[in-house]
Amino acid sequence: MRAVELFRIRLPLVEPFQTARSATIHKDALLVRVVTDDVSGWGEVGAEVAPTYAPDTLDTARLVLRDELVPRVFAGVPLDEVRGHHPAQGALTGALLDAELRATGVSLASHLGGTRPFVDAGVAIGRHADIAGAVAAAATFADLGYRSFKLKIAPGHDVNVVEAIRAEVGADIGLQVDANGSYDLADADHLAKLDPLDLVCFEQPLAPDARVDHARLAARLQTPIGLDESITSPRVARDAIELNACEVVSIKSGLVGGITAAGRIHDLCASSGVAARAGGMLETGVGRAALLALASLPGFTVIGDLSASNRYFAHDVTEPFVLDHGRLEVPTGPGLGVTPLPAMLARATIAHERLTP
Ligand code: MG
User: Fold this and answer.
1) Looking at the domain assignment, is residue 334 inside a domain?
2) What is the pLDDT along the chain (357 residues), one digit of tens a residue?
């Protein structure tokens, strides 16, 4: 190992993205590059600028990488002695795995046991100022070929929006909703009004730590409950399944500590008869490549956050992932199968650190 480099980058979004808890105008990301004598491996930190979606931020991840995780890699000490900080752990272990796979010529999807050459694309539709704006966005994405929509909802912006979009796109498009934990169990009677709308999944209705309340809500709603922010490790996923707190598990490598842990949760879901979906965080091409490799596993039976690069960015740091008849091709090259383009990376980089043994 010669070095580990950290690239803080910023990419303009083609349009702002609004959830129940935050608005993103431009995408900030932290990329990790592991440099060996032969190859470079890449990883992306699954965190945001502010701790409003999850506790870790890009800055906390950077400090933990610089002061705790990377020194352990240089010293040959196991990373799992560090507790938490899953986005940083996931990015570094992902970059190490990418370097290993590139050196041996194996794709990440093959390494994980992926079986699909293509995955169905889904698109998240953020909150709009009015229902007409959300309906117009849905119509645009339907025209582009997307066949699964996940609508961001929040109190006061829920049943009415879903009804309007269902009327616009028809019955053939799978609809999911995601509240990012913005309701309470006391809202159950209101949320039951979503039941007639035939949703594939209602993701994270309640707070991330509300596992028993999610089980109570799941018992009261017909709509399948999904958990996203709640799922922070394979053990937590097992507990949620045993509690009947969800019927769908949204798996995010950043939240659970890396792609290997994500694969273990996939396997747990498959053996438990629980649906899984591959969750995204507006990744750059580095994280998107890893997400596609994960989504190629057979147990992902609910369409995940798998959008083309141009859903978010006019110019990504890698070659863009493009829609092909409503699907995305899983990379087949060694490791992630994509590499940041030097000129694009240089243009997007706002801070760079090189750590050496
Ligand atoms: Mg979510």
Assistant:
1) no
2) 899 999 999 999 998 888 878 888 899 999 999 999 999 999 999 999 999 999 999 999 999 999 999 999 999 999 989 999 999 999 999 999 999 999 999 999 999 999 999 999 999 999 988 899 999 999 999 999 998 999 999 999 999 999 999 999 998 899 999 999 999 999 999 999 999 999 999 999 999 999 999 999 999 999 999 999 999 999 999 999 999 999 999 999 999 999 999 999 999 999 999 999 999 999 999 999 999 999 999 999 999 999 999 999 999 999 999 999 999 999 999 999 999 999 999 999 999 999 999
Q: What stretches of 153-210 show up as alpha helix (H) in DSSP?
A: 159-169, 188-191
User: Cβ(161)–Cβ(153) under 8 Å?
Assistant: yes
- The tally of domains found in the chain comes to 2
- Clarify whether residues 314 and 288 are in a common domain: yes
Q: Please report whether residue 46 resides in a domain.
A: yes
Q: Is 152 a catalytic residue?
A: yes
For ligand 1, the distance from its centroid to the CA atom of residue 224, given in whole angstroms, is: 14
* 98, 156: one domain: no
Are 67 and 89 in a shared domain?
yes
User: Pairing state of beta strands 174-178 and 148-152?
Assistant: parallel
How much distance in Å is there from the Cα of 53 to the middle of ligand 1?
9
Q: Same domain for 288 and 209? A: yes
Q: How remote is the CA of residue 310 from the centroid of ligand 1, in Å?
A: 20
Domain co-membership, 302 together with 317: yes
CATH number at residue 274: 3.20.20.120
Residue 57 lies in a domain: yes
Tell me, yes or no, whether 44 and 114 share the same domain. no
| 175 in a structural domain | yes
Catalytic-residue membership of 252: yes
* Residue in 27, 150, 152, 193 annotated catalytic: 152
**What ranges make up the beta strands (E) of the chain?**
3-18, 23-35, 40-44, 118-120, 123-125, 148-152, 174-178, 201-203, 225-227, 248-251, 275-278, 327-329, 349-355
Give the pTM.
0.96
- What domain range is 187 assigned to? 110-329
Q: How many Å apart are CA 43 and CA 32, to the nearest integer? A: 5
